[in-house]
Design goal:
Number of strands: 37
Strand order of the largest sheet: 6-7-8-9-17-13-12-11-15
Radius of gyration: 26 Å
Oligomer: single chain
Mean pLDDT: 93
Low-confidence stretches: 1-22, 238-251
Distance between the termini: 35 Å
Helix content: 10-25%
CATH topology of the domain at 54-312: Beta-galactosidase, Chain A, domain 5
Strand content: 15-25%
CATH architecture of the domain at 54-312: Distorted Sandwich
Structural class: alpha+beta
Length: about 775
Amino acid sequence: MTRLTHLRAAFGLLVAAPSLIAASGYDAVDPFIGTGGEGHTFPGAVSPFGMVQLSPDTDTGCEIRDCYGHAAGYRYDDPTIQGFSHTHFSGAGHSDLGDFLIMPVSGDAVPLEPGDPARPGSGYRSRFSHDSEVAHPGYYAVTLSDPGVRAEMTAGARVGVHRYTFPADRAAHLVMDLRTSLYNYPGKTLWSSIRLREDGTITGSRQTRGWAPDRKLYFAMRFSAPLRDHAFVNTEKDITYSGFQGPGRGRDDLAKESGRALVARFDFAKLDRPLEVKVAISSVDEAGAIANLKAEPGGFDAIRAQSRAAWEKALGAVEIDAPAPMRKSVYTALYHSLLAPAVAGDADGRYRGPDNAVHQADGYTFRSTFSLWDTFRAEHPLLTLVQPEKVNSAIVRSLIDSRKVSPWGILPVWQFQGRETWTMIGYHAVPVIADAYLKGISGFDANEALDAMVASATYAPYGGLGDYMKLGYVAIDREPEAASKTVEYAYDDWAIARMAQAMGRDDVAKRFFKRAGYWRNSFDPKTGFVRARKADGDFRTPFDPTAINYGSDYTEGNAWQYSWFVPQDQAGLFRAMGDDEAVVDKLDRMFEFDNSKLDYSHAEDIAGLIGQYIHGNEPSHHVAYLYDYAGAPWRTQGRLKQIVDSQYKPTPDGLSGNDDLGQMSAWLTFTALGFYPVTPGSLEYVIGRPFVDRAVLNLPNGKQFTIVADGLDDGHPYVGKVTLNGKPLTRSYIRHGEIMAGGELRFTMQAQPNKTWATDPADRPYAMSDYAG
């Protein structure tokens, strides 16, 4: 998962006056949405899919504040800014990055410690006011009250540019802190280095042990004004390095320092013009960072103009006509959906892989930051509609090439900057690749891709796959979260089968269609829930469908959420649950469940509850659309309005849960258009109801697909009829090919439910058991 924000007063004006329509998608974006509450987004400068995310950090120390709440570095309700670092996740449920923090200081004294947020002047951090903040795609600005400095940020693909306007009567300084990180527990920094080269370029590196082990990152930095003085300080005390020494000083170095606790001071004279600081990063080496710096020439204004042009083009993939608050929410959602997977390869094509070695990309830009358990659902399907084929092709090639050099021989699970974290479950690179292939995205070797998918699905040491292949389910007495893993593996297996079938690899297709039915082995007909089974075949007891405990039967959820996760065969699941009436009744009970006696405070990701529906976390995201599969699409329409009204708003706390690298935002983008990819790989989108008056998809193939909602307002929340290119559409789904062909999808909205539209079984979305495997 972006809105127009100048001063916070202007922000308030936009919310208060819904008739105001921004001039462009770019102007409608407010990057502050999600920076409060549990959205975990950042407001800083980044280009579409940019390697650099240059953003303010209001706190970086887990010893001081809660890491989870500061996963993106910035939290809207914090009163101080510690500095501006160059790498951030957008909406992750885990913290890391925050590399190479820079902070301006004015005057004679230059503190080298951040200080206490509660004690102004105790360090280099500064107070600030939201009234002074401005955020647009690719641009951020704030006035730092204590040094009296106006700070501006912009970013290109691999560079970030700072611009600091200092008081004319005070000396200007910068502090660069190589000690700080998000999730900054003791011992995270394994090594760091910094040096001043003869040409005035500052270069350096960090090696950290955090969410991703042994991560290496390098930088190159140049100033628009000459240095008057500098100091490189190692603040670590009483430590013997045990032979883990950095290399000696080279002949082209004026100064150099290395160690595990470095901070630098850069001194300038009193400045009569703004100081620009241009920084490039690389996961390869310092030479790569220098080359990335040279690859994007120009100063602050040039990079800002390039970033704006890139964002206007990217956001222009969708044209939205809606009241200002909804328009702001949807364009910000689209913006947040275009931040990852991020560029992770250098301008010369080199990148660092999961083996921690350097590799060369062949004719494409390597990408990383794959939060696949989240983003396979809607984020990646959205990119197939709004991004050029080369972007989607690069994503698939990055996944395949990561597998080639993986020490484990499987596709990424949760990867950033080329490094694997093993976070979450499933092998969800599989549906990303299958969905892209089935939609005709080319530029990669399909057989090589399928082989990589099969390798991931048959790697027995991973997540109970050995038992899954032998028993037909993951055994809970041998592997935690077994119920969730069983049903997620079954869906991934179906995606392998679909792609193999399309390629004519019938032996693979037959094998994995059979495995796609393993969800039945975890479904308990007596209780009507998906449950964990032991190796002896018995379901584990005691059983409470509302219990949420990490490391238990389910992943970040319980039986209520996971019992609906059979996207490849919802009709088969529904037959196991009973008839349509029984399914609709159970869905209603899920949304209307009384949680008053339940306590989920121990579970960080359980947010946005509507009964036992949890919109703040991904396992629930498709559930509101399931009424369509039971012949009650008007119930989907009503639930979607309930979700959108309660879970999204154009304010800093406008996301009910972590944006998870764009998934929460992609859900809103699709839902606002009127349809959603319940089953990536099916080539279908399940119809809900639109939340915008009109939208135009400017498709990568040059065609346009228009969505129109006649009579849409709060008094007319239901779909009366639907036409596709002027002809009645009686089914509750639309095919990918119909969108890519261009045309018009028109909804006629009405006050009361239409209980006859799209109710026939033949008009319902895809289900595996309805077709011969």
